[in-house]
Amino acid sequence: MKLSEQSIVVIGSGFGGLSVACYLADAGADVRVVEKNDGLGGRASRLEADGFRFDMGPSWYLMPDVFERFFADFGREVEEYYTTEQLDPHYRIFFKDGDDVDISPDLEETKETFEAYEPGAGDALEEYLEKSELNYEVGMEHFVYEDRPRFRDWADWDVMKNARGLSLVGSMQDHVENYFDHPKLQQVMQYTLVFLGGAPNNTPALYNLMSHVDFNLGVHYPEGGLGGVVDGITELGEELGVTYHTDQPVSAIEGRAGGFKVEARDTFLPDLVVSDADYAHTELDLLPPEKRGYSESYWDSRTYAPSAFLLYLGVEGDLDELAHHTLVLPTDWETHFAEIFDDPEWPADPAYYLCVPSKTDDSVAPEGHSNLFALVPVAPGLDDRPVIRESYRNLVLDDIAENTGVDLRERIVFEETFTIDDFADRYNSRKGTALGLAHTLEQTAVFRPPHRSKEVPGLYFTGSYTTPGIGVPMCLISGQLTAEAVATDYPDQ
């Protein structure tokens, strides 16, 4: 049967699910997206209360070229759905020894900043970014946009030819140390690993390509936040014929003659199924044991990306000390990474991120108020009983006041906490991870779970557990790769 004759249910409406739905509908399939929660976007959902609007999950708009390419695949342009604004500064960093620095969109200015910390670091940055740009251009075209799910897919001349010169060996820590000695500069070059769910010592050096994303492509803000991007892709899907069903938590995926039965609040009877839900949840909770591609012990043995302790705060007045994106970093952050990956516990001296979208967007907060959320990466699976949450909330507020000069306590008019158990409950997230599988050396490329189910023909997967991995742009691409797998199996001829 041809793809254009298929009915397909996509479970979950994260960026992977929204993306695959667009590609499949554009190929002629009858596509329905079935979402557990009351709004679309998965982890990129929104919280609206008392005149404040928060992006609950991702808030950095990086790799604008990926979004441009996505919309171009359908003959559209990004600007038809939302506008973007480059941020200046890209972000501000407060080091906990009293030092602070702004990272500017002007590369020459940034080189001067690096030079002030370490003689020769300005030129080293330029050299580093040249390597990063090469890794990005070659890596994206030949290793990200092209799925290689089997080891033999890597054993060909095209792969070897394009891999020459890439940073395929070693960790990010080793790679960065080749260019910069000053620990603060190393931190600046490595902070993006948080978006990949890794640590400097366990993330492949290839991911230095993220510095090209950061310094060369820039940090942008989309109109309406990341929720505005969700709206734009949803609108595109509707134009292509996708139907969306919210408040439909799926409880089972069952086979039937000629297709599947997907049990939710309603029952759906598609020919094919794509799951953008948590991969482990799909296999362990929605499929019978004999249909699982991986055992529970497999999922227990994986390294998961961090969860997060999130404070959504509506605050009286302005927050002049903070930028739209602000990072607060201890001068030695190895202990925080160890408390995530090695000996899990609540970080005593955390590295964290503050987002103040009201610096750029007046619509996210009432007049005279600011919208702020704080995000602390923490180990998945920690105990987060109310007494622990309250204690950690106080620690974070104290730390913000001490290291940025912003005392929020008497100014908070709206507050909500979201952390480990909430990720598990709202998104069926394994161990409450905020992102999925970490990009460790053993969980990259062919070592990630495949887009095709290993046991169930006609069942596919997309999203951050699959290739190319974690992050909004990667999930968009994952949707494309999954759709290509479906189209390969059901070609229109």
UniProtKB/TrEMBL annotation:
PROSITE patterns: PROKAR_LIPOPROTEIN (PS51257)
Keyword set, alphabetical order: Carotenoid biosynthesis, Oxidoreductase
InterPro entries from the UniProt entry: Amino_oxidase (IPR002937), Carotenoid/retinoid_OxRdtase (IPR014105), FAD/NAD-bd_sf (IPR036188)
Domain Amine oxidase: 16-486
GO terms assigned for molecular function: oxidoreductase activity
Entry-linked SUPFAM superfamilies: FAD/NAD(P)-binding domain
Protein's GO biological process: carotenoid biosynthetic process
Residue ranges crossing the lipid bilayer per the database entry: none
Pathway note: Carotenoid biosynthesis
Name of the protein in question: Phytoene desaturase
